Amino acid sequence: MNEYLQRVLKNTREKNINEPEYLQAVEEVLTSLEPVINCHHEFEEAAVLERMVEPERIITFRVPWINDEGKTVVNRGYRVQFSSLIGPYKGGLRFDKSVNQSIMKFLGFEQIFKNALTGLPIGGGKGGSDFDPKGKSDREVMHFCQSFMTELQRHIGQDIDVPAGDIGVGAREVGYLFGQYKRIKNGYEGGVITGKGLSYGGSLARTEATGYGLIYFMREMLEANAHQSLKGKTVTISGSGNVAIYACEKAQAYGANVVAMSDSAGCIYDKNGIDIALIKQIKEVERGRIKEYLKKHPDAKYIERTDDNSPIWTIKTDIALPCATQNEVSLDSAKKLVENGVIAIGEGANMPCPKEVTEYFLEKGVLVAPAKAANAGGVATSAIEMSQNSMRYYMTFEEVDKKLDDIMVNIFKSCREAAEKYNLGNNYVAGANIASFTKLSEAMLAQGIV
Q1: What is the dihedral of CA 136, 141, 142, 147, to 10 degrees?
Q2: pLDDT at position 169 over 90
Q3: Are strands 57-66 and 72-83 parallel, antiparallel or unpaired?
Q4: Which of 26, 121, 178, 199 has its CA 20 to 30 A from that of 36?
Q5: Residues 216-273 pLDDT 10s
């Protein structure tokens, strides 16, 4: 490996020794950049990599709130403002008990490259809290969100940092967060947060965007390789949240047979095809467990999760779409998928495949649509929402969806061209990293040592 890359990786490991998720994200990106670094010695002179892996700012704060029993609870809040090279910090908020600084930094780092790929003027950031909204009443969620925003509002703004939703932060949470921001600021700054409800500045197609975008990218990737298509393909999708639901909906629209979806407790397998309307009812309305699918479809099978490996990856499929969370596909699961004839992986979640899993898929000739490219549809549509807020104008669903489709086509084109330029074949993982890094490094060199 290039000596400069080795040195930066070594120093990054030493400085972030207790942050495994963050180190994993950095290593995945940097190890794929060697062809570029070898051609640009000026990057070392300007310490481009050293600056790229160090967040511009990390904000950590306490979040006290009162539960329904009248007891005070204290959580920890984060906002990692990683890079403003090409626009205001942009990235979601995650409310989940797993949240820590390592995960926030990994997500923020990924967001820089993802946002650069969209071609839109947005930087990278991420935030959240170890608060878990599951099992909480609406009142408790509101109290927490108001306390969280009371501190966060000091650090964000529509030209500074624009949060959005992520795991645990849906329409309910965004509404409470925006309401508190507006209350404190005494003004209507619509573009300060995205994923808002349609009645107060949200964008049509934002809910569907990440899942739809994943399928648009997958469509392009299949077409570019032996003119394949989604029609008639068997698809399994991990997760049953926003990304998974709308990836399923769009895949079905293209004629794919989606046979399995999951949640943290297990997965359902319906050989006749997933009833997506029922999944929406269970997950978006009732906030229930996916096992309840069997009440309406008793012929479907439920496979309970018994270890760290999701049982969904044991099901024979042509296309697997991991849409749940980071590192959800183990090497054992990857081997089972390959054994069962999988031809393509589409990463709907952020970094669902560890580096060794991605390398295994590529080695076996499986097409991989990397997260920072394939799931960029959500943030792209968030940027479209920001534009609409600035213009005091609403686009139709069809207009937003068409822009999303065009953006995903261009993202795939950028990944493919970067891979071809450096003779990397169908390695769209490296292509995505190189295409986004090229744009970011040009901006960094142009702006001086800041």
Answers
A1: 130
A2: yes
A3: antiparallel
A4: 121
A5: 999 999 999 989 999 999 999 999 999 999 999 999 999 999 999 999 999 999 999 9
- In this prediction, residues 344-361 reach a mean pLDDT of 96
CATH code for the structural domain at 207-374: 3.40.50.720
User: What residue spans define the domains of the chain?
Assistant: 55-189, 207-374
Q: How far apart are CA 385 and CA 376, in angstroms?
A: 14
Spatial CA neighbour of 240 closest among 265, 219, 220: 265
3-state secondary structure of 27: helix
User: What is the maximum span of the chain, computed from C-alpha positions, in angstroms?
Assistant: 64
In the sheet where 301-304 sits, what is the strand order? 301-304, 266-269, 257-263, 234-238, 319-322, 344-346, 367-369
* pLDDT at res. 316: 98
- The residues pairing with 401 across neighbouring beta strands, listed in sequence order, are none
Helix axes 206-224, 397-421, angle to 10 degrees: 40
pLDDT category at 308 given cuts 50, 70, 90 is confident
Q: What is the pLDDT of residues 95-141, one digit of tens each?
A: 999 999 999 999 999 999 999 999 999 999 999 999 999 999 999 99
Of the chain, the percentage scoring pLDDT greater than 70 comes to 100
Active-site entry in 105, 114, 126, 182 = 126
CATH (one of 3.40.50.10860, 3.40.605.10, 3.40.50.1980, 3.90.1280.20) for 55-189: 3.40.50.10860
Active site residue 126: yes
347 touches 375 (CB < 8 A)? yes
User: Is the alpha carbon torsion for 358, 360, 363, 368 positive or negative?
Assistant: negative
Q: Could you give the CA distance from residue 194 to residue 378 in angstroms, rounded to a whole number? A: 10
pLDDT exceeds 90 at position 1: no
With left for phi above 0 and alpha for psi between -120 and 50, is residue 89 left, alpha or beta? beta
* Measured distance CA(187)–CA(233) in Å, rounded: 50
CATH topology match: 55-189 vs 207-374: yes
Residue 230 in contact with residue 256, Cβ under 8 Å? yes
pLDDT (mean) for 444-449: 97
